[in-house]
């Protein structure tokens, strides 16, 4: 049964053709019976048969050519009025084409079908009035014959509206699906950028400290073994710290693992800047650190951003400042913001690193700074100092920490 239903759905013209043949048989049988009771004879058949065939054709092709079949049906209705062909079973095609055009046809065809349907009954009553009927009775007949056409048009138009509504829902669902896919891609890209920034900050800072200490240990290995031993201890401690932060990052990538296990260190914040400064001093970089204003709790995103900016700025000083460079760090608490000022008196970074964002894989630290600050709605100014060296100034807006 299901296969038969699917077959009929795939071939609607066959179904319409079947009902057209049924309507033709009923019309011929009715016409033959009427001819036996009429004196018109062959002339009557010559008028009714072509019109009946064409009205049945309207049924057969109503879904394939709805507008054309509507015009054909209206024309046959007019021919009936002109040729004095009374109402016949084939006129049922007028009702069917009205429904079809209202549901599937164009707007002009739907309006034409409604107009023709509303005029059909009054014109037929005027052309073939009922004998011995009062005016009220004739009006009642007209209303009774008009209602099926009005209902057919209303049902067809309702079906059109329902289809349009479902099509709109499908379009909206498809659009939302595309938007979800786009948002997922953006989220993945943002997460990859965040992980890249974290990896860069962790690796660049700690590895630069280890490289500096390793070079110093190699230089004084024979002449000052105690200094070389101290440098190796700093390398060991820095490496362990780097491993701890790397494991924390890997834990973040594993859903829930960083929450269920206390093995991973927490996100760094401004309170850990003292440890960072001491680490830099221990690696041979003089750093002057001051806090201005009244320290208070900060949003976690601002805390991490401030720590990473200072960390990256000091890393750049070690990389590009030269052997005798010194740095200063200022942390300023404003009423509505947190200010950061990191300066050094070295030779400064190459021009392309801060102006063009880096070439040949370089300069990602400043790019990461701008991305971090942009995520919290802050501003960044990076460039050479007028008296030599390099300066990084940042302002991070604050919101009450809950």
UniProtKB/TrEMBL annotation:
<dbReference type="GO" id="GO:0046983">
    <property type="term" value="F:protein dimerization activity"/>
</dbReference>
<dbReference type="InterPro" id="IPR050482">
    <property type="entry name" value="Sensor_HK_TwoCompSys"/>
</dbReference>
<dbReference type="InterPro" id="IPR011712">
    <property type="entry name" value="Sig_transdc_His_kin_sub3_dim/P"/>
</dbReference>
<dbReference type="InterPro" id="IPR036890">
    <property type="entry name" value="HATPase_C_sf"/>
</dbReference>
<dbReference type="GO" id="GO:0016020">
    <property type="term" value="C:membrane"/>
</dbReference>
<feature type="transmembrane region" description="Helical">
    <location>
        <begin position="12"/>
        <end position="32"/>
    </location>
</feature>
<dbReference type="Pfam" id="PF02518">
    <property type="entry name" value="HATPase_c"/>
</dbReference>
<protein>
    <recommendedName>
        <fullName>histidine kinase</fullName>
        <ecNumber>2.7.13.3</ecNumber>
    </recommendedName>
</protein>
<keyword id="KW-0175">Coiled coil</keyword>
<keyword id="KW-0597">Phosphoprotein</keyword>
<dbReference type="InterPro" id="IPR055558">
    <property type="entry name" value="DUF7134"/>
</dbReference>
<keyword id="KW-0808">Transferase</keyword>
<keyword id="KW-0472">Membrane</keyword>
<dbReference type="InterPro" id="IPR005467">
    <property type="entry name" value="His_kinase_dom"/>
</dbReference>
<dbReference type="GO" id="GO:0000155">
    <property type="term" value="F:phosphorelay sensor kinase activity"/>
</dbReference>
<keyword id="KW-0418">Kinase</keyword>
<dbReference type="InterPro" id="IPR003594">
    <property type="entry name" value="HATPase_dom"/>
</dbReference>
<keyword id="KW-0067">ATP-binding</keyword>
<feature type="coiled-coil region">
    <location>
        <begin position="159"/>
        <end position="193"/>
    </location>
</feature>
<keyword id="KW-1133">Transmembrane helix</keyword>
<feature type="transmembrane region" description="Helical">
    <location>
        <begin position="44"/>
        <end position="61"/>
    </location>
</feature>
<keyword id="KW-0812">Transmembrane</keyword>
<dbReference type="Pfam" id="PF07730">
    <property type="entry name" value="HisKA_3"/>
</dbReference>
<keyword id="KW-0547">Nucleotide-binding</keyword>
<keyword id="KW-0902">Two-component regulatory system</keyword>
<dbReference type="GO" id="GO:0005524">
    <property type="term" value="F:ATP binding"/>
</dbReference>
<feature type="domain" description="Histidine kinase">
    <location>
        <begin position="202"/>
        <end position="400"/>
    </location>
</feature>
<feature type="transmembrane region" description="Helical">
    <location>
        <begin position="135"/>
        <end position="155"/>
    </location>
</feature>
<dbReference type="Pfam" id="PF23539">
    <property type="entry name" value="DUF7134"/>
</dbReference>
């Amino acid at each position: 049964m299901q296969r038969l239903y699917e077959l009929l759905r795939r071939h609607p013209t066959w179904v319409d053709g079947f009902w057209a043949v049924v309507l033709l048989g009923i019309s011929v049988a009715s016409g033959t019976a009427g001819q036996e009771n009429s004196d018109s004879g062959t002339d009557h058949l010559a008028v009714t048969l072509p019109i009946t065939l064409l009205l049945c054709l309207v049924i057969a092709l109503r879904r394939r050519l709805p507008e054309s079949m509507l015009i054909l049906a209206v024309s046959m209705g007019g021919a009936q009025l002109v040729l004095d062909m009374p109402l016949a079973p084939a006129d049922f095609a007028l009702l069917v084409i009205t429904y079809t055009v209202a549901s599937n046809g164009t707007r002009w065809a739907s309006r034409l079908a409604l107009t023709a349907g509303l005029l059909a009954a009054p014109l037929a009553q005027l052309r073939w009035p009922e004998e011995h009927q009062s005016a009220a009775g004739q009006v009642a007949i007209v209303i009774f014959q008009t209602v099926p056409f009005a209902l057919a048009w209303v049902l067809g138009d309702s079906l059109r509206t329902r289809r349009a509504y479902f099509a709109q829902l499908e379009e909206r669902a498809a659009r939302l699906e595309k938007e979800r896919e786009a948002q997922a891609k953006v989220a993945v890209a943002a997460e990859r950028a965040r992980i890249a920034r974290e990896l860069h900050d962790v690796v660049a800072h700690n590895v630069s400290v280890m490289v500096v200490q390793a070079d110093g240990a190699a230089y004084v290995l024979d002449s000052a073994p105690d200094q070389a031993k101290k440098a190796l201890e700093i390398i060991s401690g820095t490496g362990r710290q780097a491993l701890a932060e790397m494991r924390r990052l890997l834990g973040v990538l594993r859903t829930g693992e960083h929450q269920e296990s206390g093995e991973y260190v927490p996100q760094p914040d401004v309170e850990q800047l003292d440890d960072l400064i001491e680490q830099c001093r221990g690696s041979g970089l003089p750093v002057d650190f001051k806090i201005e204003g009244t320290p208070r709790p900060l949003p976690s995103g601002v805390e991490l951003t401030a720590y990473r900016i200072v960390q990256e700025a000091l890393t750049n000083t070690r990389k590009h400042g030269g052997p005798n460079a010194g740095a200063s760090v200022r942390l300023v608490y404003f009423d509505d913001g947190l200010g950061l000022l990191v300066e050094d008196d070295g030779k400064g970074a190459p021009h392309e690193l801060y102006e063009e964002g880096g070439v040949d894989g370089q300069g990602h630290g400043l790019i990461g700074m701008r991305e971090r600050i942009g995520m919290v709605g802050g501003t960044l100014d990076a460039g050479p100092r007028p008296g030599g060296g390099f300066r990084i100034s940042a302002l991070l807006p604050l919101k009450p920490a809950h």
